[in-house]
Protein 1
Amino acid sequence: MPKLLRLEDRFKSKYKIDSITGCWNWTASKHGHGYGMFYTGKSLPSKMEFAHRTSWKLVYGEIPEDKVVMHKCDNYSCVNPAHLELGTQYQNMQDMAKRARARNGRRKLTDKQLRLIIASTKSNKELAKEYSVDASQIRD
């Protein structure tokens, strides 16, 4: 019977360290915007979650419900806990705007709706139906 890898070992096998930037670049499954996705397999039902959130939890512990894990390095696929920090969703949106990472395009959604979408665990398809927009707009 094959030996099951511990969560930490499975996680470590899915990134490569960039010797120049220090980023731990996720090499496994990625979300449409480049965020790493990791199958936690820790609870029933098991779930996929953003790899940078898993990285935070493995090093620092649980993430408070009112906080998000933000990237200091602007590299969405980075899971180096030293490049991550906790903040509120509002701080994350302010940081995104300050660093000119916000995309506007054909947006029909309010800032409040955008914050709710980003914080949601629903699928793009579910959110698109809920907000009456195309799933690609949710993904963007």
Protein 2
Amino acid sequence: MNEKLGRQQSIRVGEHLRQETISLLCSSPLKRCLETAEEIKRWHSVDIVILEDLKERSLGKFEGRLYSEKEVKKALSTGTAEVECLEDVM
């Protein structure tokens, strides 16, 4: 996903949630997640709680590249190709 589209989506999420009652806002420390949390916070008087455990799964050699769905599913289920296995994620 390109950065401009991601930013637009973050803004839309913040606007969509502006009328909701939010008493706690948690985010991954990852940049795009924090940007989305900031857009939500714009409409609410809450602090953002950053949780390291919300970081995304490591996809090893698959990160930033295109592979077949079959290759990715196999690696995700077996933990091969330096992909963080599902048990570790949980």
Protein 3
Amino acid sequence: MKKLVFLLAISGAAFTMNAQDKKVAATAPQPTATQTTAPTDGKAPQMKFPVTDLNYGEIKQGSDPNREFVFTNVGKSPLVISKAVGSCGCTVPTWPTEPILPGKKASIKVRYDTQRVGAFTKTITLTTNAVGQESFQLTIHGNVKAEPAPATTTDKPAEAPVKH
């Protein structure tokens, strides 16, 4: 009986300490996409993007849907991107599944459905092992213009050739 009470007391204390750690982490300020935070241990992976907001500009319906965000691991250990999610089904990211070694470049490829006419702003959320950048957001935006409707011809029907 004493062992059971002791185990329950230890479990309760561990649960309480774990809950407090999560509460502190949840209230810590999160960096924006243009910020770079310093790793706490000096050895953590760290992403650096020259551009975190890509403008497709004004494009025609059905134009090239692919764009790319290039980044460098400026940290001191391998960077792992475990997940990349578009803000809707029209935005599909592709990311490297292998670890990115320190000092190496890689890219997040993004495909937007350019068949959808109109202005758009979409985000891609990355889940990484970079300290201070565990959740990182990239943005794409632009305006897709409709393809003009094919011109209808009002020409007279072709006359039959004259036989001689």
Protein 4
Amino acid sequence: MKEMQTQRIVIKVGTSTLTHETGRLNLHNMDCLARTLSDLEGMGHEIILVSSGAIAIGRHKLKMAAPPAPD
């Protein structure tokens, strides 16, 4: 019997996918993304999620207007 190889899928999502223009979380987009990733995993794929939007979300939660200054 032929062994199936798992396909690895890397998905990168950015700030505009995870947040509204106001900086608040876009829960609808996050829900759709989670369902899609779950479906892909259920089909046997290995999923790697990379997000550049985490900093913007954290900044909003901490009520910071701008990113912290570098050292």
